[in-house]
Hints:
This protein is of the alpha/beta class. The chain is 46% helix and 19% strand. The protein contains eleven helices and eleven strands.
Amino acid sequence: MFLTPRRALLACAAAAACLSALPAIAADTAAWPDKPVRLVVPYTPGGATDIVARLIAQKVTDDTKWTFIVDNRAGGNGNIGIDVVAKAKPDGYTIGLGQTANLAINPTLFPKMPYDALKDVVAVSIVAAQPVVLVVRTDAPFKTLADVVAAARARPGEIKQALAGTGTLGHMAGEVLAKRAGFKVLNVPYKGAAPAITDLLGGQTDYMFATPQGALAMVKGGKLRALAVTSAQRLPVMPDVPTVGESYKGFEAVDWKAVVMPAGTPADIVKKLNAAIDKALAKPATIAQLQAEGSVPVGGSPERAAQYIKAEHERWGVAVRDAGVRPE
Length: 328
């Protein structure tokens, strides 16, 4: 295309402006972070996600002296907090801790989502993964996973599964088990894990997939019996409890925690944060603390994290559709 002198001057000015901006952008990336980083946790303080978020932030701070400010944005089954991250300026100063629910299950569970889990955030690292634990009352007739399955097959629609909430990992793990084992699950949803466990103990329901934090103390106290965990390997904190996969090959359902940033965040910043997280996850103290609450550290590259989230997004989307699950 022919350029008039005026257009040529404007083009040169624009090019010069772009070139002059490059060193500044590079300098900003290299200096990151030179102020506190907001860490959005999409659940309430004291919960499993919040505990992992604060642990990783502290371990990274110990190494780097970076400052993180935890911002708890609960609600919407974890969607509200991730939406805050998705809509934040992609300058590296807002990060979030997503998980299986708001990055893999909710996109199919909810008819309308405020963000696209695969396009509006960029994966930094899968920091940890935690299964759920199939538990029953200690006075229940079920001694093994096979006992629960046999009873559910023999009494279709009568054996009740307590849910901490619709669309939770425990709920979806139960749906996948029911499909694999060939029985129809009868779900009884509650507004949280505490009332669900209370009714399980009271005999109103028969079993539940609970978090290790919610179940471990009661298992040790003799109130609940743990029959199986949904991780690929047995948990160090529950070494005598078999995995569901030992009965149903390939079965796995874990609540993974993923550090994410707004889409468009400079790749150098993503890699810098990823390296700091990987270093923190390799520390014996970090591993011990995660294992104590029923989690295992994961780590790995941003590319690996993105691939994993995409695969989980597809897998749980199929599970939600097959089960016909709808939000409460």
